[in-house]
Amino acid sequence: MSGQDVPIGRMVGRMGGFLGVILLLSWLPSVVLAQSLPTLSIDAQSETSTAEGQLNLGIQYIQQGQLEEAIAAFRQSVALSPSFAPGYYNLGLALRQRGDLQGSADAFYQATQADPGFALAYANLGAALLEGNNLDLAKDYLQRSIELDPSLALSYYNLGLVQRLQGDLAGAVISFQQAIQLSPSAPEPEYHLGLVYLQQGDLTNASAALQQAVTLAPNYFEAHYSLGTVYYQQGNLEEALVAFRRSAESNPNYPNAYYGAGLVFIQQGKYGDAQRVLEYARDLFSVQGNPQWSASAEQLRQQAQNQSSTP
User: What pLDDT, in 10s, does the model give residues 118-134?
Assistant: First the structure.
């Protein structure tokens, strides 16, 4: 192989790390996905002078796409009952949707204080802390959520992300495998398991996990790209090129795919093709604010240009 590095795919997968669950008034013992609720008239709902009424009001606002109104209702819910865990939990979800990561984490923390057995609140608090790069606390809260509810696949998934960032690759493998066992139809744990195996140099298992990820999600462009890097490292250039092409087809604005294809073309002696895709990668990296990889793509493009003019 050429010894050229391949840019690494994104660390955080498409699950996003958060459990988008809205709790109803009947929050014990069940939870219901917000999108599964019927759209109801706000005027037809229960008394809004209670914490439960404000919670239901906020849920209706979420259904109707009125995020700020929902946040106000959830805030009023906990103001009316400062120990009402579902109000804090839903406030955390809504603030996260707004992009207020700190406010979201604070709300999830208040939910855990109001109900120390609320596994979903610990799971989302851990996810918020992970996104904020507070890895030690994230790990603590994610492990606590698993202790409370060992069936939470997303807690294992996020725990695996934390462990990988902390360099605990063996622990990450175990966590991702557990997430896969609990949620076998989710492609993200397979993808990140493949990345860990790739980081460990275990190309066989990396290939298997990444193949499963793209089987579950055929347009998972990061997984196609990472599968291409496995094939490239194995010397399977044609398979690598197919994977990079599928990555680009799934997301035409993903520069890594074109960069990877450029590496393959150089290895194959197809210098004109290499120049074309590397120029495209260079421009995409630049537009997307990644000057380091833009410069690397340009350097590689010049290398292909020089080799094409060599007799």
Answer: 999 999 999 999 999 99
- Rounded to whole angstroms, the Cα distance separating 311 from 137 reads 59
Residue with tokens 């010894």: 3
| Residue 33 host element (H or E) | strand 32-33
Q: Which residues pair with 33 in a beta bridge?
A: 21
Half-sphere CA count of 71, side-chain side, radius 13 A: 15
Token match 């914490």: residue? 51
Task: Report d(CA 25, CA 4) in Å as an integer.
Answer: 57
pTM over 0.90: no
Instruction: Output the six-digit token pair for 61.
Output: 């606002």
Determine the 3-state secondary structure of 36 from DSSP.
helix
Tell me the percentage of the chain whose pLDDT exceeds 90. 82
Cα–Cα distances (Å) from 125 to 87, 111, 162, 210, in that order, read 15, 9, 13, 28
- Per-residue confidence (pLDDT) for residue 311, from 0 to 100: 60
pLDDT tens digits along 252-266: 999 999 999 999 999
Q: Which domains does the chain have, with CATH numbers?
A: 20-115 (1.25.40.10)
Residue 82: is the preceding peptide bond cis (ω within 30°)? no
Q: Which residues contact 274 (CB under 8 A, 6 or more apart)?
A: 262, 263, 265, 266, 300, 301, 304
Task: Report helix, strand or coil for 210.
Answer: helix
pLDDT number for residue 173? 98
Output b/e per residue, 157-192; b: 16+ Cβ within 10 A.
bbbbbbbbbeebbebbbebbbbbbebbeebbbbbbb
Measured between alpha carbons, how far is 21 from 34 in angstroms, rounded to an integer? Answer: 6
